[in-house]
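Lecture 7 notes: from sequence to structure.
We start with the chain below.
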Amino acid sequence: MAADIFRSLQAEHEEFLAGLAAVARGGGAVGAAAKAVAKLLDPHLVKEKAYALPPLEILSALVNGRFPVNTRKILGLTEKLRASVDEMLDEHKAILLAARKLARVAEQESKVEPARLAEKLIRHAKAEEEIFYPVVILIGEYLKLKTARAAAARESERCATGLCRVTFMHPTRDSRERRLPSKFHCK
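Predicted structure tokens for the same chain:
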């Protein structure tokens, strides 16, 4: 399910770039407007492919209660998106302005397909802003929560089996790990 979402978004991105390239080859004002959109869109899509879309691949696993093996990698990607979401949204604003101009110019020249392509791109960008980016960030938050709970459960298990360790500090010696006496075990 989620891998399908990832693949369909990738395919849609490729369709946008191919469609814009085809319109640009047509030349004129519509072609120039399409080139302007593509110039903004292409580097943005590279970023999305690198860190905004891959976390969506694990969505169905999470929904089905499975924890991904590559959690650290996914957390890194979700944090990258969280850190750069303002930049990504600013890029969307520029892309949307260029896409609206393409739609306007295409309509003025009665070119239906470029206008449809621009409108589809505008809807796609809104879906990313309103759905996909927040979902990716929520995936990261969920993974952090589950990772913390799993670590707490492991520590609790270690304490229950008498494997708790404590670090004692001595002013003149290095710190040493020692087993806690049983009366100090975690309960």
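Points to note: The two ends are 42 Å apart (CA to CA). The longest strand covers residues 165-168.
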